[in-house]
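Work Package 3 (structural annotation) set out to generate three-dimensional models for the target panel prioritized at the project kickoff. During this period the team completed the workflow that converts sequence records into discrete structure tokens, so that structures can be stored uniformly alongside our sequence database. As a representative example, we reproduce one entry of 318 residues exactly as it appears in the project archive.
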Amino acid sequence: MRAIRQDVHGSPEVLKEVELPRPEPGLSEILIAVRAAGVNPTDWWNRAQPMTANGLPLILGWDVSGVVEAVGTGVTLFKPGDEVFGMLPYPHGVGAHAEYVTAPARAFVHKPADIDHVQAGALPLAALTAYQALVDTADIQPGQRVFIHAAAGGVGHLAVQIAKSRGAYVIGTASAAKHDFLRSIGVDEAIDYHSVDFTEAAKDIDVVLDSISRDTAARARSLAVLRPGGTLVSILPFPIDPAELADIAARGIRYESLLVEADRAGMQAIADLVETGALRAHIEATFPLAEAAKAHALGETGRTTGKIVLTVEGTVKA
């Protein structure tokens, strides 16, 4: 099979197409013929330096949409020919940027019939992150005020839709050029972070989804918009000092740091939202598998809307 592998860390040019033996499914695993695989910030971060995915050589990619090629012993959920989508176990189950990948059967669900593999391949990691942050962790309720940083981004634009499906009032940040897009996906208030201080524009927030704060000063700005009893959920894997945690707790605010997990129940909830029309990924661009380096370079500009997806030859509409 063809795969995109790196033997060193560095710029997008370290990504090379290689020929490797096709894997075989182990116990409780399925072998998937990949049709589409999303590209996420964690991919280009781990390409550039060791972060959550350690060890070289490395095949990146966690998002998968494809067709079951074979099933391992013990698998009852799927049969060869089934169309499935899901996320490889994060962070160590990496390897989706290839023609075939093996994965735990129970990390996957059937692909909704009314979306194609590109749309399905864009969803798993980003949608699971948003769902686990807003539903599983923050348990947002109808009428609550939810503030989403980078609301036009990969996680952000899906988080907006998930929050709206729960009846929340959503405030999102993005550049002014993306405000029409934010409104189209349901944002109630759009804030241009270039020209507006969001700490003055947003108050009495119940939940903040934070995908941007890398230090205490940045977190303090998100904390400033929360009401007492509110929740800040960070999806960045950066450590926080115990003294800062104590100060946050003393203010009556709940702080959680989330690392996305493979989750069949979460994937089924995402599939259900897709089937009801409540959730859809915006595709910024697609690239053939061989052009993974171009996909990384585009993602690293930080100016994309929604998701970037790699396609594998043979991708078809469902």
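The chain is about 30% helix and 30% strand.
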